[in-house]
Design goal:
The protein has helices spanning 13-24, 58-78, 81-84, and strands spanning 5-7, 30-31, 43-44, 46-51, 89-100, 105-106, 120-127, 135-137, 142-144, 151-155, 163-164, 172-181. The protein is an alpha+beta fold. Strand 8 (135-137) and strand 9 (142-144) form a beta hairpin.
Length: 188
């Protein structure tokens, strides 16, 4: 699918259910927004912004980190250039957990790299539940179905615009984040 990779069972059913339970009881949930300027009309969701290095997110991190590593290793196996010829990159420590209720969704076609986020080079997503509506990738001519534990990883750039299948039917939970370029620290 031209740079869009889908891996089933990247996260166990039990881990998915635990993340949903944690999310539904988390006091840090907020209205979902898009982009640096916090646009709210393109996306209707409830979000939690997490950080892989934040002790307050440790319950989520413990469940997600092994699957994020699997996704990164899988894409590096499928695209060896990421390890052999690509500039320095890593999984960004920031990620989101999102819930879309019935009628909500990410309505706008978008890509993950922009002038606000120029260092993003790939995006990843894990579906936390089976849902009626997935994610459309128009240039890849595909819609990824939302299946619990399924991981998706793709280029963050303009070649992979996407949006939720909207309006959402029922509830959909996802975890999503990015891979980013960074400057290597030279040892003195």
């Amino acid at each position: 699918m031209h740079g869009l990779k889908v891996y089933n069972n990247i996260l166990s059913k039990d881990s998915c259910n635990k993340i949903i339970e944690l999310f539904d009881n988390d006091d840090h949930r907020e209205v979902g927004t898009t982009g640096y300027n916090k646009i709210t009309n393109e996306k209707k969701s409830t979000d939690i912004h997490c950080n892989l290095r934040n002790i307050h997110n440790q319950s989520y991190n413990d469940l997600l980190i092994p699957s994020i590593i699997k996704l990164a290793n899988n894409i590096k196996t499928d695209y060896t250039f990421l390890d052999t010829g690509c500039d320095y990159w890593r999984i960004d420590e920031w990620y989101n957990i999102q819930k879309y209720e019935d009628g909500q969704g990410y309505f706008a076609t978008h890509c993950e790299q922009s002038s606000s986020y120029p260092h993003r080079m790939l995006a990843w997503m894990i579906y936390l539940n089976d849902a009626e509506c997935g994610t459309e990738f128009p240039y890849q001519k595909t819609t990824v179905k939302a299946k619990q534990g399924k991981g998706v990883i793709w280029s963050a750039g303009w070649t992979h615009p996407h949006k939720g299948v909207t309006p959402n039917i029922g509830e959909k939970y996802i975890a999503t984040g990015w891979g980013v370029f960074y400057k290597s620290e030279k040892k003195v």
